[in-house]
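Subject: Interface between my chains keeps coming out wrong

I've been trying for a while to get a sensible model of this assembly. When I model each chain on its own everything looks fine, but I need the whole thing in one frame so I can look at the contacts. Pasting all components below, labels as-is. Any help appreciated, I'm running out of ideas.
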Amino acid sequence: MSTVEKAISLLNFFTEDEPEWGLSDLARQARFDKATTRRLLVALANSGLVEQHAATRRYQLGASVLRLARVRETHFPLLQVAVPVLREVAAATDETVHLSEFGARGLVTLHVEESSKANRVSVATGQILPLHATASGIAFLAFSPAPLVKSYLRKTPAAFTRHTLVQPARLDDAITAAAARGYSQGEQGFEDGVVSVAAPILGLDGYALGSIAIAMPLSRRTKATTDHHVQAVRGASEKISARLFGEQPSPRQPRVA
Amino acid sequence: MSTVEKAISLLNFFTEDEPEWGLSDLARQARFDKATTRRLLVALANSGLVEQHAATRRYQLGASVLRLARVRETHFPLLQVAVPVLREVAAATDETVHLSEFGARGLVTLHVEESSKANRVSVATGQILPLHATASGIAFLAFSPAPLVKSYLRKTPAAFTRHTLVQPARLDDAITAAAARGYSQGEQGFEDGVVSVAAPILGLDGYALGSIAIAMPLSRRTKATTDHHVQAVRGASEKISARLFGEQPSPRQPRVA
DNA sequence: AACTATCGGATCGAATAATGATCCATGGAT
DNA sequence: ATCCATGGATCATTATTCGATCCGATAGTT
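Reply #2:
Try treating it as a single job with all components included. I did that and got this:
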């Protein structure tokens, strides 16, 4: 890990639950030397990414992250556009709805609207979704460039449950089916007892840039809810793409005959 | 500048106006070697702070800045709280209203609501305001701990216009007056033809953590507008502190008799 | 009051990672 | 067809980071 990556990795310890850190605490948690941690924090503080509370000497995220987020959202307003749509879907289905975007580190959960039910599926923002084991991942792969899909399929997929698709042939079938139908279904592939449907969000090039998914406990699934969710998720996906680009991109698929 | 600071300084080139950069361009602008710039960008990309558009090879801010901003705002919702108040003030006065926060790098403009008038004052978010030459700065100093004020006054202040207060005695007077009245007035100290009034935003410790200001062209100033602005800015400042902390902090001033 | 543990921070020689001149392949522009 | 700028890769040199150690302050504990 480069020095820069170490420094930035410290930022990821600041969360909604633990938004403030003392030096020693953070050093232990990050498994860096205390002196190293301090140097990194000072560098981050000089750059405004973190701030130090003068009285308590504790560190928290700094004001400049707000500016960065604003620039990103102005340039590429996925969240602004998608969150209201997610809310609608969550309201219409009363199940957990989540949005993910594909970046360098994989398919990252950007936003979650949770169901109001007590028995609901919880997803953490920032979580990285395994492409082969989630409905979101399959939907994404089904509308991704062939080389990306191929290179991903070369890796041996990890099994998270007894239901995770690990045989390349089965995975391939799932992707082909999703490409043909325009949506994917998850069957307890990532966590037991959780099923979901997902649709890709297409970029201007016609390839998926992320996906939107509805997840529910298996116990609640019926034919009717599934159909409803498929409709909801496809409608939402189209709405988001359309609002992002002013038009609905025409899909490009890696494996269409 | 440390390696980490160099890397992060690259982030500041991504703005609303120039949200995407090519490698060579950015290297020239930042005055880093191209190879160095690339290494830094790769490190930033691995951390999710920037992303590279696969087709154009250009870089833009990444998805993880959104997460960081959300954590910061959840923990310390200055913007969430203040922006609606700024909007009210902007609506009531139809002049440019801006919010700033004091951090490691100085008094930074966090948010701006511009007047709808053609002849208006424009302020850039992210701009660093000189403490001695702006109403915001004087308001901040008037409610800052004595050592901070003293150490700042030791530096020789830069003159931005003929009207900038540069004599320590005059500056001191301005700060004392602002401390006594609870607001400050700017008289073309930073830019010719611009006047403003500002009030501090107090933290729980009773010291200022930033300030809010209304700026207008000198040509529009009358006794009546000034009075109105003073009222508006003080009311807004109190409202923001109160909403942030559930109560209005009692001010602590460095130089009260 | 003395002791102890832990905190944030500072120091400095050794170890490592950053640097940048140089090269390469690609793709527009003239 | 040629030229130039682009993004990216290489590697010996060098500057920076690393971390064991020390320090003073604070807060419990005995």
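Reply #3:
Confirming on my end. Strands of chain B lie at 50-52, 59-61, 96-103, 106-113, 128-129, 184-187, 194-202, 208-217.
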